[in-house]
Design goal:
There is one protein chain. By secondary structure, the chain is of the alpha+beta class. A hairpin with a 6-residue loop joins strand 5 (375-376) and strand 6 (383-386). The chain is globular. One of its GO terms (molecular function) is [protein-PII] uridylyltransferase activity.
């Protein structure tokens, strides 16, 4: 026992606690009275409060999670024992108890293991000799009600021994809880009898069924939690690589080997001393994290969310380092521990499997040996197949030839074999053999490149290499980002897991499994001759994360260093380095630039320079976005990428139209007139005069026809304003078209109404008609899978827009109501950035803003742009988790670019104030109805 534990016991002072309980009984005429109960309650409550405060202080001092969990369990033990003693000795004493007037209290579940988190449930088993009597019922109720009143979450069961055994035999959950049972107080002979019968009648000869059930239960739990240990907001208790996995492992070995401690497994040779130490260190770290989480939040919080990661990192003593913040260093440690838990799982499951194979009945064991006896893997003398899994022929395979470490994974790939846990365990134990000499070995590098570019299952093999520690050792640059997370809502996985998932997406595209989701990528991939370049670029594109230098630039340097090692030519190396450096370019341009602006396409074509690079970058971008996490990719992003690809392909191949914009607009006007041939001539001619050149050049003919019918019906109905909605299920986008009187603040009001309705805007196109009206198309992210549900939602948003524009609803109030229910504290900070560029478009000034997203932000930004007398031609909204990047194509009210530097400075200052949340609340200045708008035009772009 440590000195701190002695200090804790001294503070708790068990003997003094019992003496004070006895004093309460002595001072009371009736120990079962309400007064005595209240006095006892106050004493025990004070003991718990003081004890927990001391335990929290000790946790901050020594950092030991296991010690904290044990101290909490010890405190709980003494509270329950004091309660039970008071109830049986003073409140409800029995002078000559009969056999039936005995009972025992046992801790079960996590409490039975002698470990508790601050918010853990207290699981109790009340053991009776036969059945409940009035006396036992009084005692049990006294203890339980007091615990409940003190705020504990108590789970309990009251059973006799026969019921304990019968239920344990039929219910695996109860059996598992009983496996951890621990005597607390009462009639110890009752507990001993139950424990003896449980061991003889339940545990003996049932290990195989128990192991199978617990492993199946674990798999279901992993599936619910995301089936990866690399989620950036992991569940510390239930997630893959969490405490429950360690507990499951100990259940299995305790049940099978009939051991009581981890060190017993070392004596049996199941674990090495080093592996046992890893088990204990992993458990201690996870308990420390969990206890800090519970103390911080004041509840049984098990998900290590972004909201609390910074504070937990600080509590555990992590500090910022160049390239990695304190919270990122903490989370990297967390994921390394989760990886250790995975290694231990593999090692212990292999040992259990071997033991069970030895125990199989004689005839069936011989039959299986004959049918499935190990045989050599074709083409090698060092590896065998064992039940469809690859394993080593002896323990010196890797020492004889370290290349065999890489060859193990290569052979598993080409022969479609799973891995025997013994082989992976030996690979992990042989990591010291992976040195500079092996990294420079031509054969080892050839085998690795074959694994990476395999047409079978490259990501699975690479993931096994990573879990065994081989991948990070063979490519040290990859080892630096193993288990690294980025403190961002956008990234769902650690960096290494993201890279492996990107390779997996590419493999699926190449196999034709993503035809529906990525038709363009699937169609152009056969035209990419050098597929090795693409796979290598995907593996390396984020490999420089966590460095002070921009990761794209630093990653290109890493690629130039690594590619020659794997046999790439100078030309191939240049291409890989270029792809790594530019891996974000296509995504950013597609999502934040006006793809109908010719200058956008010209600039991107200049960056790409060739069709081959364009194809490579398109596929890499698709894989990168898909691998970020569930829900990040959608059809709208796919459509933006396809548009950018198509326009750039035309320019690079010389097919981009040289006809002037005015001529193309006139051709579009003629086509629209032909499509409206069933309209009366005068009505058709009047309508064709409504639209300016930008509308005719950027809007598809089908949409122009749809808009024409919408505008015609609105005017005929005499409506001053109207909305029209349409869903795009493939693009995962919903379109809301607004036709209303033009107004300088129209876009601000519309975006504010969308925010008030809970809609996330992805893009916006704004046009003015010749008669002073506005035709704005707002694209919002889809919320429902079914079109019927999404249409109803879109119509509600449209109705909200109409109500605000008509002045029936007050925008500041509806936004405030929306924001009120949202959590105020934000764990993220994004430094506000505003840039103004006149070189990105031939006709517009491009303003790009970057900041922390919040409800109503887009409305506030557009309101300020209106205040600054800027005319918005288009808006492009890109959200990366908590960060938003908004791009606006603007002119002054005369249709000219903004060139004055003083005006630039004023725009930047005002917009930064909005992003920082310190701008005057512009929403209170918003007009609440625009039925009688000012005559001033907000867009003068007809000359463009």
């Amino acid at each position: 026992m440590t000195s701190r534990d002695l200090q804790f016991e001294k503070i708790l002072n068990v003997a003094a606690l019992r003496d004070r309980c006895d004093s309460i009984a002595a001072m009371s005429k009736d120990a079962s009275s309400l007064d005595a109960r209240n006095t006892l309650f106050a004493l025990l409550k004070e003991t718990v409060t003081e004890g927990r405060r001391t335990i929290a202080e000790l946790l901050r001092e020594d950092g030991s999670g296991l010690d904290c969990a044990r101290r909490l369990s010890l405190l709980q033990d003494e509270i329950i024992r004091a309660l039970f003693s008071f109830a049986t000795t003073h409140a409800y004493p029995v002078l000559n108890p009969s056999t039936s007037e005995h009972l025992a209290l046992a801790a079960v579940g996590g409490y039975g293991r002698g470990t508790l988190a601050p918010g853990s449930d207290i699981d109790l088993l009340i053991i009776l000799p036969y059945k409940q009597t009035p006396w036992t019922e009084q005692v049990v109720e006294y203890v339980l009600y007091m615990l409940w009143d003190m705020g504990f979450k108590v789970g309990h069961a009251t059973r006799n021994i026969d019921e304990c055994i019968r239920l344990s035999q039929s219910d695996m959950t109860i059996r598992t809880a009983m496996l951890d049972a621990r005597f607390l107080c009462g009639a110890e002979q009752l507990y001993d009898g139950m424990e003896r019968r449980f061991d003889e009648e339940v545990v003996r000869n049932s290990a195989r069924a128990f192991i199978a059930a617990k492993l199946a239960e674990r798999d279901v739990r992993h599936q619910k939690a995301g089936d990866t240990r690399y989620l950036v907001e992991p569940n510390v208790k239930e997630g893959k690589g969490g405490l429950r996995d360690l507990q499951t492992l100990f259940w299995l070995v305790k049940y099978y080997y009939r051991v009581q401690s981890l060190r017993d497994l070392v004596k049996l040779g199941v674990l090495s001393r080093r592996e046992a130490n890893r088990f204990e260190k992993s458990e201690d770290f996870l308990w420390a994290v969990r206890c800090h989480m519970h103390f911080l939040t004041g509840k049984s919080e098990e998900r290590l969310s972004f909201d609390i990661q910074r504070e937990i990192a600080a509590d555990l003593g992590y500090h910022d380092h160049p390239g990695l913040s304190a919270v990122e260093r903490f989370m990297k440690h967390y994921f390394l521990v989760a990886k250790d838990v995975g290694d231990l799982t593999r090692i212990l499951c292999a040992a259990l499997e071997d033991e069970q194979a030895k125990e199989a009945p004689g005839f069936s064991r011989v039959f299986r040996r004959l049918a499935n006896r190990p045989r050599k893997v074709p083409g090698t003398l060092e590896f065998m197949q064992d039940h469809g899994r690859i394993t080593v022929i002896d323990q010196d395979v890797f020492r004889r030839d370290p290349v065999n470490i890489i060859r193990l994974f290569h052979l598993a790939d080409i022969h479609d074999l799973e891995f025997h846990p013994d082989a992976l365990k030996l690979a992990t134990r042989s990591l010291s053999l992976i040195d500079a000499k092996l990294r420079d070995n031509e054969e080892a590098n050839r085998l690795f490149l074959s694994i990476l570019t395999s047409r079978r299952r490259p990501a699975l093999i690479l993931r096994r290499m990573n879990e065994a520690g081989v991948l990070g050792r063979f490519i040290p640059e990859f080892g630096r980002i193993v288990s690294m997370m980025q403190f961002s809502m956008y990234h769902h996985y650690t960096v290494d897991e993201h890279l492996l998932r990107a390779v997996e997406v590419l493999s699926r595209i190449e196999q034709g499994l993503e035809q529906e989701a990525h038709p363009l990528a699937v169609s152009i991939l056969p035209d990419i001759e050098d597929r090795e370049v693409l796979y290598m670029a995907l593996l390396l594109h984020d490999i420089a994360k966590g460095r002070p230098e921009d990761h794209s630039v630093a990653g290109a340097k890493v690629a130039r260093k690594l590619c020659p090692r794997f046999g790439f030519s100078p030309e191939q190396t240049d291409t890989v380095a270029w792809l790594v450096r530019e891996h974000l370019s296509m995504s950013m341009i597609a999502q934040s630039r006006d793809l109908h602006d010719r200058k956008t396409i010209e600039d991107f074509a200049e960056t790409v320079q060739s069709l081959d690079r364009l194809r490579l970058l398109l596929v890499l971008t698709v894989c990168d976005i898909r691998a970020v996490g569930p829900g990040v990719w959608n059809g709208w992003k796919g459509q933006l990428l396809r548009t950018l690809y198509g326009e750039t392909e035309l320019m690079l191949s010389g097919g981009f139209s040289a006809v002037s914009g005015r001529e193309r607009a006139e051709e579009a006007r003629i086509l629209l007139g032909e499509a409206l041939s069933d309209w009366p001539d005068d009505e058709r001619e009047d309508y064709l005069k409504l639209h300016y050149i930008p509308y005719l050049l950027t809007v598809e003919l089908n949409d122009q026809i749809r808009h024409a019918e919408f505008i015609r019906s609105t005017i005929k109905a005499g409506k001053p304003l109207a909305t029209m909605v349409r869903t795009h299920s493939f693009h995962a986008i919903t379109e809301i078209t607004v036709f209303a009187p033009d107004h300088p603040r129209l876009l601000s009001i519309v975006t504010g109404a969308c925010a008030a309705a809970g809609a996330n805007i992805a893009d916006a196109q704004v046009f003015t008609t010749a008669d002073g009206r506005a035709l704005d198309t707002i694209l919002i992210n889809r919320a429902f899978d079914q079109d019927e549900d999404e249409l109803r939602r879109a119509e509600r948003i449209g109705a909200m827009i109409e109500a605000v524009l008509a002045g029936r609803k007050h925008l500041p109030e509806v936004i405030a109501h929306r924001t009120k229910s949202r959590r105020k504290s934000r764990p993220f900070t994004v430094t506000p950035k505003v840039s103004i560029n006149n070189n990105l478009s031939n006709f517009f000034t491009v303003i790009e803003l970057e900041g922390l997203d919040r409800t109503g932000l887009l409305s506030e930004i557009t309101e300020v742009l209106s205040d600054l007398s800027l005319d918005i031609a288009s808006a492009h909204i890109t959200t990366f988790g908590e960060k938003v990047i908004d791009t606006f194509y603007v002119t002054d009210l005369f249709g000219h670019k903004i060139t004055n530097e003083n005006r630039h400075a004023n725009i930047v200052a005002r917009l930064k104030a909005v992003l920082a949340g310190i701008e005057e609340d512009v929403r209170h200045k918003m007009p609440q109805g625009i039925i009688a708008p000012p005559t001033e035009k907000r867009r003068r772009v007809s000359q463009k």
